[in-house]
Amino acid sequence: MSEARRIGAWKQAAILFIGFLLGAALMGVEMAAIRMMTPYFGSAIEIWACMIATVMLSMMAGYYLGGAVADRAPRSEVLGVVVLVAGAFVLAVPFFAASMLDWMLQNLGYDPPAALTASVALMFVPMMLLSFFSPFAVRLLLTDAQHGGRVAGSVYSITTIGNVLGTLGAPLYLMRVLGSRDIMLMFAAVVIACGIALIALRLRARVDGG
């Protein structure tokens, strides 16, 4: 294997592994946020619908905006900065969530519209920013149109595996031993580490001449 192809291979593997971690973090953050909101709004199906709709809407926005930014600046450090901002927001959530939810409960009540507002306030920004990853990764990994389907399939498959791990791991294991605040902080650390790694990929590529 040539040096250029070797460098390309490890970079591809690193990006896919980061996608796996971010996929797990995205759903883990969602589970922790839902747990934070449950004492205020309950767990009725209407409340869950509001929360799930928020996540889906934020992912839609992230996919669209992430694809647009990737076309303009297809560099891993740009994605890294976006991921760092998402991690900073997740890191802040445990410190403002309780007071914000208290205020919403007193002023907006606990009906579905209030739950939807709370979901957007807690989850929309970090979920949207984390959703930049998939279209951005496809753009970074795509070397020719002939393999576009395979690249896109690999990226979305690996992030979905992470989604499944975060969806099951948070409620089935983490929530038995950790509180919502600690879970949020743990996933914030994962997201921030992924952002730093994406920036480091660009620096490593420059050193290696890639």
Short note summarizing the structure:
89% of the residues lie in helices and 0% in strands. By secondary structure, the chain is mainly alpha-helical.
Features:
mainly alpha; Growth Hormone, Chain: A
Domain count: 1
Helix share of residues? over 70%
CATH architecture: Up-down Bundle
- The whole-number mean of residue pLDDT values reads 87
Strand portion: under 5%
Q: Might you state the CATH topology name?
A: Growth Hormone, Chain: A
Helix segment count? Answer: 7
Topology order in helix (H) and strand (E) letters: HHHHHHH
Are there runs of 5+ residues with pLDDT below 50, and where?
Answer: 1-7
Termini distance? 15 Å
- Classification by helices and strands: mainly alpha
Largest sheet: none
CATH class: Mainly Alpha
Number of E-type strands = 0
Report on this model:
- It is a single chain.
- It contains seven helices and no strands.
- By secondary structure, it is an all-alpha fold.
- It has one domain (3-208): Growth Hormone, Chain: A, CATH 1.20.1250.
- Helix 2 (45-72) runs parallel beside helix 4 (112-130), helix 3 packs antiparallel against helix 4 and helix 5 (133-141) packs antiparallel against helix 6 (148-177).
- The two termini are 15 Å apart.
